[in-house]
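new request in #modeling-help
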Amino acid sequence: MVTLFEHQIAKVLSTCFPARYPGGLIVNQTSKDPQMKHVSVAGKVVTLLFSAAFLVACSGSSTKEDEEAAAAAAAAAAAAKAAQEAQAAAAAASASSSAADAERTRLIDAAAAYGNVFYFAYDSSNLTPEAIAALDAHIAVLATNNNNVRLEGHTDERGTREYNLALGERRANSVRDYMVLNGIANYRIEAISYGEERPIGYGSGETNWAQNRRVELVVVN
Amino acid sequence: MKTLAVAFINTAFLCLALVARADLTIEITQGSDNPTAIAVVPFAWQGGGTAPEDVALVIESDLARSGQFAPVARTDMLGLPSTQAEVFYRDWRALETEYLLIGKASPTPNNGMRLDYELFDILRQTRVFSGFESGPASDARMLAHRVSDKIYEHLTGVRGAFATRLLYVSVTRGGAGNKDYYRLTMSDSDGARPIVLLESREPLLAPTWAPDAVQIAYVSFETGRPAIFRQDLATGKREQLTNFKGLNSSPAWSPDGKTMAMVLSKDGNPDIYLMDLATRQLTNITNNFAIETEPTWMPDGKSLLFTSDRGGRPQIYRYDLASKATNRITYEGKYNARARVAQDGRNVVLVHQQEGNFHIAVLDLVTNRMQTLTSTALDESPSIAPNGSMVLYATKLGDRGILAAVSVDGGAKFRLPSREGDVREPAWSPFLSTK
């Protein structure tokens, strides 16, 4: 009986140690590799040139040499023009892509400068002006990608644990509602409350409490 | 005789004691005004070698902790009687002893132990009570707690609650960049013999007992989200009861064990739900836009108390199952939360805010009088002993979380500091079946 029980306890304990998400850390996914777009535009050019060469080769079966020559010349001209246009398009795309990348990098840097933690007043789930400024920066980044986010609500140690779980959820929901209002789809956001269980500062006093009343934004993919 | 299940738990506890951590010690900080002087003489060991456990010390500590007894120091004792013939009343009267407890501890077949005890009234010079307890020798401390229960009941008229257990959560801080380490621990009522039931790097909270004291429930974040689990202490079997979006918290078994009250926010905000444990059917009993949380059952199972901020600030409300009516029951102060009810259905212990500090208070439902029991600043999670005599709660000593206890009349206080880590959320078990 003892062995069985020990076995079961071992089983219970083992369920508690699987690898977990890196809570509290922003998992910042790098933006899409800009090289990918260049390759795909270049690919289109190659396809066009190949099509033109194919037309030239096929025209060899024509009976009248002039017509053949004219057709070949027309085809070659068309192919050259197409290639030129494709190259121009590729250059334009490349230019606009690097402009977009630069803009995306700027947005990510701006959001990173604010950090991923939004702070609250005591017993309040209202967003402060500072929190709104930081959130706006994160929303601008999320508008450019498809990342999902986890909003983790926390409270300070004052008040009961279960009530604080509810208050932490209110804070996370208040951030979520602001994000949804500003165009981030609800399904991309998960709001979770840890109540007072995960303090940043363990001691008592306003210095610790202020850094514990927070919502952390965690990018999850 | 114990039932098989109880015997099995005791055996299981023994093997698990190997992984025990977070040992609690007892520091009595305040006694009652007029404690009864009692001498608990070391029990005479009838076996070979030395006694495996100082059972008299366990009994003496139990009685002292209640605040209602003042033990006579062993060093003052003029003799160590273990039979009535060896008792000299004159000697004990000289020490102003009111009661004297003597006894013998004897080994019995199959690693058993038997404690025989006799209680004497020194002033009346008479033996007033005697009895015995028996069980596995490995459970000697629990046998001693049962003797304490009998003595306590004989002298106070109130059933003793020493032969009970505690659940609590202890946390070892992870340090810079590391996650904390959470443990759900069960110990005897005096903090001895701790057994770690569960360890996790994710928060564990709200441990609670089923009325049979064989099952427990708690909230674990091990899935990355809060979820309610129940666990059978006899078999170790564990089951996840909820997996809803949002809060899944505050499990509370009904007195008949068939229903579990809980908090879910799956419909947008936290409400109190009742789960029929047989069918898993859920009923929302609050349906309100405010925060509703911390449900607890009245002992008759006909109504529940819970915390709600529907009036702007958290206060205690009562929901009647038959009439479906909800009434506010706390009016004194801006913050009253997390009620727990004594078995008499009269005393409600709760967290009460006064001048920014959080104290444990007791509200008498008959007189509507509220009395603050504690004076420290961050007191929470009150849990009342099954006999209604003591309230165990969590508080802070420096920046460490510790457990402390206070008698319901506010007279006696003691602390249970842990050797390491933060300790919190104590849950006092119901009476354990010994039949």
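bot summary: Chain B touches chain A through 54 residues (CB under 8 Å).
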